[in-house]
Amino acid sequence: MDRTYTITELAREFGITTRTIRFYEDRQLLQPTREGTKRVYSRGDRTRLKLVLRGKRLGWPLDEIREMINMYDPHGGEVLQLTTMIEKLKANRDTLLQQQRDIQQSLSELDQLERNCLDQLASMTPSPLAAANS
Asked: C-alpha angle with apex 114: 112 to 116, nearest 5 degrees?
């Protein structure tokens, strides 16, 4: 018999709320079975949740995450999924590298502005030697 999980077990394992899991279920990213009112999550649901959370960490919208998950073919047809994943990873990497360059440029500009302010402040404040000689 395959291992199953409760919503509470998954929430604890992944450090998220049960509300978050229900949200992903509402968005049809997870499809637990029901035993009365109790949700029963399979190993596949657990894997899907793990993939959803990984996609969110990468900044992907839920529609893209769903698209990637739905491409998966457990019968060996993973070529489309993998090539699409590689394209998305490259695009994500390019975006992050551009953001990194933008942040570095902003930090450089802030450093220069701070130096200018310190220089200006120093020229306005009498030096301790000048005050001692007066």
From this structure: 70
φ, ψ for residue 88, nearest 5 deg: -65, -40
Element (H, E) at 57: helix 43-57
Q: How many CA atoms lie within 13 A of 107 on its CB side?
A: 6
Enter the DSSP assignment of 34.
E
What whole-number distance in Å separates Cα of residue 110 and Cα of residue 97?
A: 20
Task: List, for residues 36-88, the tens digit of each pLDDT value.
Answer: 999 999 999 999 999 999 999 988 899 989 888 877 756 656 787 788 889 98
Domain count across the chain: 2
Q: Enter the pTM of the model.
A: 0.66
Is the same domain home to 48 and 85? no
Q: Which of 47, 36, 39 is nearest to 19 (CA)?
A: 39
Cα dihedral 123, 126, 129, 130 sign: positive
For residue 65, tell me if it sits in a domain: no
Q: What distance in Å separates the CA atoms of residue 21 and residue 27, rounded to the nearest whole number?
A: 10
Record the tokens describing residue 105, joined without a space: 């440029």
